[in-house]
Amino acid sequence: DDEATTVASTATALETPAARAAVDGDLQAALSRLSAAKRAAWDALDELIEADVRASMAFELGFLADEMTDDEARAALDLLRQSEIDARRDLDRRRAEARALEKRGAVATQPLEHRRNIPAFLLGVCRRIVNDRHRPPADDLPDDADDLDALAPLTGHPAADDDHHDRLLHAVVVCAPLAATRAYAHALKLTPGNAKKGKAAKDALDILLNACPDDLPAQRRLLKALDLNDVIAALVPNTKINASKLNALKTHRKTLEKQLKKQHQPHAGRRGGDAGPSRDDRDPGE
Predict the structure, then answer these.
(1) pTM of the entire predicted model
(2) Quick one: average pLDDT of 21-50?
């Protein structure tokens, strides 16, 4: 309770003019630093902003005086003025709609008439204008045509003669909506799920590689050269591979394992020792 009382008393103390002056600066000192153009733009807000709100804007006026040019300050104050006009018009419209509903006998909800945080709005506008000053001009920004030139060599469906004439340089992993990848030669459908991205990426690479025909060696080579980390980075989270594709991949892996076992399985000899000559290979004199 003592802590709550201390917080409440502190908050009340900050509402006094002396406390605001200590935190935000003195209002008259900030007004004295405004140029004639800035002061005229500020005085034009007399009928729109209440006196107590104006008295609490010493910090914002100091920012206008010290950090902004005359044109920037006028632009910020004009935005504040237009915003306040629009807010009052919207409130008047909602009041009129409520009165019209009451005349028709309907239950009307009275519009909320909360006070806007005008100092915070003005400070946000001022900082945005100052930050825009440091942005590069539009001429220095990269041209969209450069991006189109970079995308021009990419294709989702390489021609067969491209494979045999060494025109393919590398493969790029993308994850996109199904409609955008229907024409891709090497594509795999993903569905929502909880598969781990590392396992899903490895399975996806194996499925795409198995589906690539053997008569396209360049494309198979590029698929094998893909980095697993790039595939993991391209995958969206919470996905899984189609069950039928996974089952086919498991069957293919089991077939490969059996073939490898047969290749490495040693030939069995006679029981009890090494294999000797057969009966037909013995010397007839024996």
Answers:
(1) 0.41
(2) 80
